[in-house]
Write a structure and sequence with these properties.
Elements lengths: L5 H25 L11 H20 L3 H11 L4 H25 L5 H24 L7 H18 L13 H15 L3 H11 L4 H27 L4 H24 L2 H23 L1
C-alpha cells in the first residue's frame, strides 16, 4: 500500500467511471426503446435542480445525498422504486466527480482513505449480497437512525465547545465495514455513519468529508454499479437529470468544505444528521 498515492486513486476512479459509461451506452444501443421517451422538458430541469441541491449538501457535509434526493423526487411524484434506482445510478457518477474534486482540493487523508475503503468495499459487497438473497434492509433503518440521532446531538453540542486536541481515530476498519454494510443493505448511510463518527472523534472536518466522499465512490460502485450490469435502467430522464445537477455541484461542494470553518461544518453536520435521522425514523413508522 505504500506505493498507492492519491493520483493513482484519481486515475482508478476515471477508469471505473468510463467503463460504466461504456456499459450504459451499450445498454441504450441494444435497448433504444428504453431511451425513446427521454426529453428536455420542465421535469428534466427539476431533476437537474434536485441533483444539484442534494450533491451540494453531500459534497460540503459528506452525507445526505440519498435523503435529499429521495425527498425531492417523491415530493415531485416520482414513485419510490424509480427514485431509489435512479438515485443510486446517478450517485456512482456524482461520488466519482466529488472524489476527484476533493483529491484536487487536497481534502483527502491518504492513510485514512486506505483504512476506510478496503473494509468499506467488503462490507458493501456483503450487504448487497444479503439484501438480494436474505434480509430486508428496512428492518435495520429505525435502529441505525436512532443511533445517528444521538450521535448528531453529540456533534451539535461539540460544535459550541472549544476544539479538543485530536488523538487519532479508533476502530477505523470496523467503522468502514459497518458503514459499507449498512449503506448497501439500507439504501444509504455511508456518509452519516462514517463521517459523523470520525468528526465526533475529533478529526478535522475538511479531511474527514473529503476522505469519506472519495471512499464512497468505491462503496457505491460495488453496491450499485455492478447491480446495473444485471438490471439496466428504465428511468433515463431522472438519472440524467440527477447526474447533470450532481456533476455540476460536486466541485463546488468540495471547494466549500475547504473554506468553511471547522466548527461551522461540525454544527451543520450535527444538524443534518439530526434532521435526516428524524426523517428516516418518521418514514419507518
Amino acid at each position: 500500500m505504500k506505493y498507492l498515492n492519491l493520483k493513482n486513486v484519481g486515475w482508478l476512479i476515471l477508469v471505473l467511471k468510463i467503463s460504466l459509461i461504456v456499459f450504459l451506452v451499450l445498454q441504450v444501443l441494444h435497448h433504444p426503446e428504453s431511451f425513446s421517451q427521454f426529453s428536455f422538458d420542465s421535469s428534466f430541469f427539476f431533476f437537474v435542480i434536485a441533483g444539484f441541491i442534494a450533491q451540494m449538501i453531500d459534497g460540503a457535509l459528506g452525507m445526505a445525498y440519498g435523503v435529499s434526493c429521495s425527498s425531492l423526487l417523491m415530493g415531485f411524484g416520482v414513485p419510490p422504486k424509480v427514485a431509489s434506482a435512479s438515485i443510486h445510478t446517478a450517485e456512482v457518477f456524482t461520488t466519482g466527480v466529488s472524489g476527484l474534486s476533493h483529491i484536487f482540493m487536497k481534502n483527502v487523508d491518504k492513510h485514512l482513505f486506505i483504512r476506510l475503503v478496503i473494509p468499506g468495499v467488503i462490507g458493501s459487497a456483503i450487504g448487497a449480497y444479503l439484501l438480494s438473497d436474505v434480509l430486508d434492509g428496512k428492518i435495520f433503518k429505525p435502529y441505525i437512525s436512532g443511533y445517528l440521532l444521538i450521535l448528531g446531538v453529540f456533534i451539535l453540542i461539540k460544535s459550541f465547545r472549544q476544539v479538543q486536541p485530536f488523538n487519532g481515530i479508533k476502530y477505523v476498519s470496523a467503522l468502514g465495514l459497518t458503514g459499507g454494510f449498512f449503506d448497501a443493505i439500507g439504501g444509504g448511510g455511508w456518509g452519516p455513519i462514517v463521517t459523523s463518527n470520525i468528526i465526533n472523534q475529533g478529526k478535522h472536518p475538511k479531511e474527514t468529508i473529503g476522505t469519506v466522499n472519495t471512499a464512497e465512490f468505491f462503496i457505491t460502485y460495488v453496491s450499485t454499479g455492478i447491480f446495473l450490469f444485471f438490471v439496466g435502467i428504465d428511468s433515463w430522464k431522472v438519472v440524467l437529470g440527477l447526474l447533470t445537477g450532481g456533476v455540476i455541484a460536486a466541485p463546488i461542494g468540495a471547494m466549500l468544505v475547504s473554506r468553511i470553518k471547522p466548527k461551522t461544518i461540525m454544527f451543520l453536520v450535527g444538524l443534518v444528521v439530526i434532521i435526516t435521522s428524524c426523517y428516516n425514523i418518521y418514514k419507518s413508522f
